[in-house]
Amino acid sequence: MSEVSPSAEALTDLVLTLFRVNNATLIWGDRLVAPFGLTSARWQIMGAIAYADRPQPVAWLARDLGANRQNVQRIVNELAKDGLVAFETNPHHKRAQLVVLTMAGLQAYEAAVRAWFPAAGDLAKDIPSDDLATALRVLVTLRNRLAENGADAEDRSA
To answer: Do residues 43 and 82 touch, judged by C-beta distance below 8 A?
Structure first.
């Protein structure tokens, strides 16, 4: 076995911790937004819809989220069934409908956002903002390098 560099060891520890943090964040997020009829996954997709410059089809939402298109489609279909999103005709593509928040969806999303900021403040308590900024820079760099290496959601095989 070849020698492992200190950077490779540190990155391994970071990635393993990211997996654990991701799982814990999803559980925490699910509890945070449950009162609004949401899950972390639903809220994430609704956020992508809310922050988009204009209505987008599912494939574009998935790309923007770095998520698998089929998973996003499944969640969007559930949101539509619950009346939180609706589909509009796409003038540029007959089959790829545009996804928009309904009034109920906007209200649920905004309620979740209002709950988020105090909860995020509590979670970030005593973590210096410079440390959070550094962590963000490292994660963005890793995400960009992974993208450069062709690692995107659509490439995943189950």
So the answer is: no
Q: How far apart are CA 105 and CA 74, in angstroms?
A: 16
Q: What is the pLDDT of residues 45-80, one digit of tens each?
A: 999 999 999 999 999 999 999 899 999 999 999 999
Radius of gyration of the chain (CA): 18
Those residues with Cβ within 8 angstroms of residue 29's Cβ, 6 or more apart along the chain or in another chain: 39, 40, 43
Contacts of 137-146 with C-beta under 8 Å, sequence gap 24+, read 138/14, 143/66
Query: What is each CA distance from 89 to 57, 69, 100, 129, 158, in whole angstroms?
Result: 10, 19, 11, 43, 32
Using DSSP, how many helices (H) and how many strands (E) does the chain show? 6, 3
Residue 31: φ, ψ to 5°: -65, -40
Q: pTM here?
A: 0.84
For the record, the structure tokens of 19 come out as 């997996």
Residues whose CB is less than 8 angstroms from the CB of residue 157 and which lie 6 or more positions away in sequence, other chains included: none
Look up residue 91 and give its two tokens: 């003038």
